[in-house]
Write a structure and sequence with these properties.
mainly alpha, 3 helices
């Protein structure tokens, strides 16, 4: 399974791969921001809203990462079929 995934990733078009990598970097940045928010909550422990904001931002980052991966593979297959 992992071998097939790495083979598919190595055969992706360069422009799609570049966009996927930039999207994953953006997602990691969002997850780092959420980690900072959750760390701030852990230190001060005043507002439960800060916890919910941190968790929501983390969920958003992971959803972005999976969307960039899935859409990258899908667009690569579409591009192969068209041309």
């Amino acid at each position: 399974m992992i071998k097939a995934l790495t083979e598919n990733f190595s055969n992706i078009d360069k422009s799609i791969k570049k966009l996927m990598i930039k999207g994953i970097k953006f997602s990691l940045l969002v997850c780092l921001i959420s980690s900072f928010i959750l760390f701030t909550y852990e230190i001060f422990y005043n507002s439960p809203d800060l916890y919910y904001i941190g968790i929501s931002v983390f969920k958003t980052g992971t959803i972005f990462a999976s969307a960039f991966l899935g859409c990258g593979f899908a667009f690569n297959e579409i591009k192969k079929e068209l041309g």
